[in-house]
Amino acid sequence: MRLFVAIPLAAAVIGELSAISALLKSREDGLRWQSPESWHITLQFLGNSSQDQCECVAVRLHKLHLPPVSIRLGDLGFFDHAGVFLATVKLSPELLLLQERVTAATEPCGFVAESRPFQPHITLARSKDKGPRQGIGKLKAELEARASRPPKFTGFLAEEFLLYESFLGSGGSRYEVRERFALDGQ
Question: Are 169 and 155 in contact (CB under 8 A)?
Fold first, then answer.
């Protein structure tokens, strides 16, 4: 099973991102747009995991007792090297602490934290092809033309984070919640 740990989005933010996606997407853009049900803020990608590792992660993450985390989205942007269109998430000390505690908790279960700095984001679309990313280039040009009207996003309080299982398919990945973890500080 392929696992990852993430924060689900508030309904208001899903609505705002849905409106932006509807405005920007076209049939000819060469992008695979993520469905709103799949939007999340990844804290740690665990990848291929055994049932024992899944159970270990669940037990360890239930032992974390952190307060709710205030989430604020930043700008729309790109990971050019990966052909990804995204919404950035502002990195607060509380969000960074949650991510660090999650990765520390999963280490005894056989998972290693990434060496790259944590860049919280929400993936909105991916380039369909591995070659020249023309769709991303066109989208970038369109966003630059709209730069005078950057989107404003509603902040929200994350009161939980989730352990998801990812199922790969021809139309993209589908995610199922395996476990929920409260952010209640107790």
Answer: no
